[in-house]
Amino acid sequence: MTTLQIDLPDQLAQEARRAGLLSPDVIERWLREQLRSKRVDALFTAMNRMAAVAEPAALSPEEVAEEIRAMRADRRAATGR
Q: Could you tell me the pTM of the whole model?
């Protein structure tokens, strides 16, 4: 267990204490919610970046086979086979 010390303005600390917001359980729940929210935000940011990337044209099965043949030929040439 980790102990944290935070500095708050007196009035804010008093109001938070009266509202029951400074208990370890409440703070833990709030922190977990914030972490979950940040992960969701990061996910949507990544999804938006992915959506903004122009997709290359889809290759036909024949074009895929040709690309594989060319790659294999390049590898053979590079290894001297």
A: 0.59
